[in-house]
Amino acid sequence: MISLQKHRINILFVIMQMEMGGAERLVYNIISKLDRKIFNPSIAWFFGDKILDEFKRLEIPLYHVPKIKRFDFGTMRKLSDIIGQNDIHIINAHNFLSLIYSFYGCKIANNKKLIYTEHSAWEIDNISWMWKRTAQYLLRYSDGLVGVSATVSRRLQEILKTKLTKTFSIQNGVDCNLFSNSTDREGFRKRLGIESSDQVIGVVANFKRLKNHIFLLKTVCELLEKHQNLKLIMIGKRFEGDEARVTQELEELVKEKGLHRDVLFLGCRSDVPDLLSIMDIFCLTSFKEGLPISLIEAMAAGLPVVGTDVEGIRDVIIPNRNGFLVQLEDIDGLKKVLSMLLQDESMRKRMGQESREMARSRYSLDRTVDEYQNLFLSVVEEKP
């Protein structure tokens, strides 16, 4: 086990899994920009044995704390040992389960500072009555509560009765400089078998039922009747178990319609900026979202964005400025706006430029990191 230096503020970020979902991407982004002269970050997680290359490149301590049982007190003890042995000053727990498993080691065993970050309003809504009561107790003794949007922060106050003085809204941010247009756009397209005359709609979202890929795919199937040079790129991790059916359903529809040349499943990728650069439109058709980083990255890449009119997505897309919102399962509505964008290059460019400007002004990673650093400093300076 790696001992952290004691002259800096030692922060342990606790995440659910060693996968690159929205919460994990945010933690990765924060750590990549933290002032290492002041902060000494580390990460603990529960699910997933293989460490992602992105996290290895951070060159920080990484602790896998397996959660095996439904309620695993052994996991709490192991996390508590990491906190005590490495003189952790602040634990930043991302998502509700991380909060539950961090509280014992942080507040009871070691009396350290605890900050809870929640990524979606719907997850708060879905907490059972019993766990809501538990959460209200735990959050009463936490030192800071963060929602990734104003909507999430309000829900923390309304549902979990958090104090206004301890509840903050820190919007997700991205490093916009990573998403400037690729200098080898055509070469990258060619390597994927995409011609210069092809138009590309893309989505970056792990293959979970919540992301509602099938809505987008069914719409593209109808669009292809008129737009023969259209390609759909789907980027994201596949899952086992029940979620495996999501990918299977998509692949079965592609096979049934004979679209294997038109629909590309690219899996989990580390070259998302390059992939965004070859797209013409980004489309996210989720049932629910927190504040989707993938959508903000698409905006930073200068793409017009289309999404379902649900919490999280409607916080980011401003209709007729940087894209369009459509109702869930409204294939005709989605087909209409996508077709309009495909046929109007000047509209794509105008909305794409608006997306880029909005990403830089509203969703800068530097701003996000500054706000987290100020929060970390403020809780450390508080009197016990």
Characteristics:
single chain, 384 residues, alpha/beta, Rossmann fold, seven-stranded parallel β-sheet, six-stranded parallel β-sheet, 15 helices, 13 strands, 42% helix, 18% strand, disordered N terminus
- Please describe the biggest sheet, giving its number of strands, its sense, and whether it closes into a barrel: 7 strands, parallel
What's the overall geometry?
elongated
CATH superfamily of the largest domain: Glycogen Phosphorylase B
Low-confidence stretches: 1-5
The SSE order reads: EHEHEHEHEHHEHEHEHEHEHEHEEHHH
- Total separate domains: 2
Strand order of the largest sheet: 3-2-1-4-5-6-7
Word description of this protein:
The protein is α/β, with parallel strands linked by helices and 384 residues long. The protein folds into 2 domains: 9-173 and 364-381, Glycogen Phosphorylase B (Rossmann fold, 3-Layer(aba) Sandwich), CATH 3.40.50; 176-362, Glycogen Phosphorylase B (Rossmann fold, 3-Layer(aba) Sandwich), CATH 3.40.50. Helix content is 42%, strand content 18%. The protein is built from 15 helices and 13 strands. The chain has helices spanning 22-33, 53-56, 73-85, 96-108, 121-125, 129-140, 150-159, 185-191, 213-223, 244-257, 272-277, 293-300, 331-343, 345-362, 365-381, and strands spanning 9-17, 39-47, 62-64, 90-94, 113-118, 144-147, 167-169, 199-204, 230-235, 263-267, 281-284, 305-308, 323-326. Strands 3-2-1-4-5-6-7 form a 7-stranded parallel β-sheet, with helices on both faces. Helix 12 (293-300) links the parallel strand 11 and strand 12. Helix 1 (22-33) packs across helix 15 (365-381), helix 9 runs parallel beside helix 10 (244-257) and helix 9 crosses helix 13 (331-343). The longest helix has 18 residues, at 345-362. The chain is elongated and about 65 Å long. The two termini are 29 Å apart.
